[in-house]
């Protein structure tokens, strides 16, 4: 099947591992899935410390479940990417640990204070839901199928984050002030979650033509604004003056994208931001710490195959 045929036939869940797909499609789908899987893993690493830092047993249990979910999403997506036959799961994990794997901008920044947790668990996960819901129609069937499970669980994550935000904004004045400060710091990063503007996006056109994605970065960003800006105000958060948000005549919103720091965004996307090294280092250290487990499993597997070889020959 050539790429023009793929474009003609592209539609929801149109292609699977048994199809003879052109290399251009396979590489584009692998890049997209690997990026998504890496982001799930790095998001879990960002939130993992709050299993201990959470202020109550209930919140600790919720964060423990959330981190488990995110790691599971990453592994599910690595398998969906692996089915394209371009890279193995091990290769993708190795690239992530070595600083070669790309992941979402929001997960390059440190998160240390409890008041920051709803910025990820509510706003970023809410943004993710906007994007992931559209990917349930992706042309690569294993990706779309994975999104059925991911979206179901992400819905609970958003409710978890909303509960924390409501609690903080109904708390003491100090909690409200600190939550507002965290929101002002994270708000531009959240708006950049969907990636560069359409005119600067290098992958959207092809991904759209072959049905890997169905909505542009700008459309997704505006849809998120329309849904979440009113929610932010509902909980008493004040929208920062910059980046400027314009309300259209029909009551919908759009951001003045030139107000966003795209130079920093592209620095982050290349893993060259100061915080990137710290976040990637955590992943590298963890992978190195459990290397002996992988080695032991591989040794056991080799021994079992060696023991079974004579029997198989008989």
How would you explain this protein's 3D organization?
The protein is mainly alpha-helical and 314 residues long. The chain has helices at 3-9, 23-47, 50-53, 57-82, 89-97, 117-135, 141-169, 173-191, 204-209, 217-234, 262-269, 274-289, 291-313, and strands at residues 245-247, 253-255. β1 and β2 form a beta hairpin. α4 (57-82) packs antiparallel against α7 (141-169). The protein is globular and about 70 Å long. The chain starts with a helix and ends with a helix.
* CA-CA gap between termini: 43 Å
CATH architecture assignment name: Up-down Bundle
Largest sheet: 2 strands, antiparallel
The whole-number mean of residue pLDDT values reads 91
SSE succession: HHHHHHHHHHEEHHH
**CATH hierarchy, class:** Mainly Alpha
Shape: globular
> How big a fraction of the residues is strand?
under 5%
Structural class determined from secondary elements? mainly alpha
The CATH superfamily is known as Ferritin, core subunit, four-helix bundle
Helix content: 55-70%
Please sum up the structure shown.
67% of the residues lie in helices and 2% in strands. With 314 residues, the chain is mainly α. The longest helix is centred in the middle third of the chain and has 29 residues, at 141-169.
Features:
314 residues; 2 strands; mainly alpha; globular; 13 helices; Ferritin
Reconstruct the topology from this structure.
Layout: H1 3-9, H2 23-47, H3 50-53, H4 57-82, H5 89-97, H6 117-135, H7 141-169, H8 173-191, H9 204-209, H10 217-234, E1 245-247, E2 253-255, H11 262-269, H12 274-289, H13 291-313
Antiparallel strand pairs: 1-2
Helix pairs in contact: 2-4, 4-7, 6-7, 6-8, 6-10
């Amino acid at each position: 099947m050539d790429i023009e045929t793929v474009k003609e036939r592209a539609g929801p869940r149109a292609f699977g591992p048994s199809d003879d797909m052109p290399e251009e499609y396979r590489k584009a789908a692998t890049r997209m899935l690997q990026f998504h899987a890496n982001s799930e893993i790095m998001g879990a690493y960002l939130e993992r410390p709050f299993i201990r830092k959470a202020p109550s047993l209930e919140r600790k249990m919720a964060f423990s479940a959330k981190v488990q979910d995110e790691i599971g999403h990453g592994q599910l997506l690595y398998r969906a990417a692996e089915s394209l036959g371009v890279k193995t799961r091990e290769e993708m994990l190795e690239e992530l640990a070595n600083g070669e794997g790309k992941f979402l901008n929001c997960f390059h920044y440190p998160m240390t204070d409890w008041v920051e947790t709803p910025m990820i668990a509510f706003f970023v996960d809410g943004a993710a839901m906007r994007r992931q819901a559209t990917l349930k129609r992706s042309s690569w069937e294993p990706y779309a199928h994975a999104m059925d499970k991911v979206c179901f669980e992400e819905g609970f994550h958003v409710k978890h984050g909303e509960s924390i935000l409501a609690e903080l904004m109904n708390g003491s004045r100090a909690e409200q002030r600190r939550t507002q400060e965290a929101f002002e710091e994270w708000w531009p990063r959240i708006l950049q979650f969907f990636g560069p503007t359409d005119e600067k996006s290098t992958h959207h056109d092809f991904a759209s033509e072959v049905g890997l994605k169905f909505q542009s970065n700008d459309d997704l960003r505006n849809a998120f604004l329309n849904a979440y800006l009113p929610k932010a105000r509902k909980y008493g958060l004040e929208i920062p003056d910059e980046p400027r948000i314009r309300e259209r005549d029909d009551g919908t919103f759009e951001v003045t994208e030139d107000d966003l720091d795209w130079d920093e965004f592209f620095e982050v996307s290349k893993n060259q931001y100061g915080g990137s090294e710290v976040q990637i280092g955590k992943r590298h250290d963890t992978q190195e710490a459990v290397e002996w487990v992988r080695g032991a499993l591989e040794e056991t597997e080799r021994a079992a195959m060696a023991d079974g070889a004579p029997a198989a020959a008989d």
